[in-house]
Amino acid sequence: MKNKHTQFNLKLYYSTVIVVMALMLLGLFADNPLLHHPGPGYITHGVLVFFFSICLLIYPIFKSHVFRIIIIVVASTYFYTIFFIYPNTWSNFLFLCFIPAISILFFDTKLFYLSLLLNTLSVIGLFSYVAFVDRGDLFPYISEDLIGNSINFLGSQAILYFIFYLSYGRLEKQKLYYEQIKQTERLKTTGQLAAAVAHEIRNPLTVVKGFLQLYEKETTYKENNKRHYSLLIDELNTAEQVISQFLSIAKPDKDTELELVNVKSVLQSVTDLLNTYGLLHDNEIVLNMVEDCYIAANTIEFKQLIINIIKNALEASKDGDSVVVTAESEKDWVKINVTDFGHGMSKEEIDSLGTPFYSLKSKGTGLGMMICFNIATKYKGTIHFDSEKGKGTTVTIEFPATQMG
Ligand code: ADP
Ligand code: MG
Fold it and tell me: Cα of 341 to ligand 1 centre, how many Å?
């Protein structure tokens, strides 16, 4: 696709160059007052037409910054020369005003500013020449209203600057967009590949784990040899967990059904489930919820999201602290807050959340938050973190509310 794009541009470029060359040749030969008795001025004009054409024709081969500067210099020399050779053609002055426009075509910021500066300095020089040396002899249309001409010139430069500023901004945005699309495509392919690999790895792991469990129970083996079995099984469990979590992210969207999810009953069942887990470190989960609210999502996935976030809150908490879960409807949104009083996160840590395998825990998988963000995005929800190091964290989860029935 990219190749086609560049080929198209090249075609357009050469068509434009041919038009420009045809116009320059017309200027040189069509009813040119100097054609009948060509002097040094006319020859210079011809030589410059030749050089400028060659530069434009070979530009696509080099495309370098230096070559762009050369084009601007040759173009400036060309336009200033014809301005002096043909003093009666007042419209040549227009070309001088628009010389910086050439660098807009190259989308080169530095070159544009350089060209704007050089052109302004050259026009100041030119106006001084007209005012003090020529004194309206050859260029009466400039010297008669020097101030007006200066203002017009500055105005034209301002317009050029404006055009450049707007089109450059748009181009940058497009570039960014293109990069994002490329990145998404890359992620999609690598994701599919990784999912296939993960799936293939899971089967041999299960077999190895099964045999290890069998050997662990085998009484004929020496205890000394069995020492490492539980460690091996633990490690295999972690690997299995990572793979299952990963596969749940890579699962295609069409596998999940949209349902009316009762937020209150999901939160109730999740807190009941995790309270047992919290008991390990004497942590309690307090659920404050008055009204029933509903969202459109998949119940299992929504549960998975809440479990991951409450689990993180419990794991960040000190022994004996509680985790507070509140939920309420606010206008068209259902807002769930999970607050802990644990070790909190710095701004950099918050920014890293959702990055695959980002975990500060010795036994963490670093996939929990990535799963949560995926689920939230899928059902048009958002997750927001407010955290202070050493004080605690409040996670705010918001989903569009759906009315019952
Ligand atoms: P895991 O829990 O497996 O480490 P997650 O993606 O769930 O992976 O979380 C990534 C990291 O984010 C955690 O390791 C932890 O450092 C940080 N984190 C997440 N939630 C909290 C929280 N409530 N308080 C402090 N740190 C948190
Ligand atoms: Mg986690």
Answer: 14
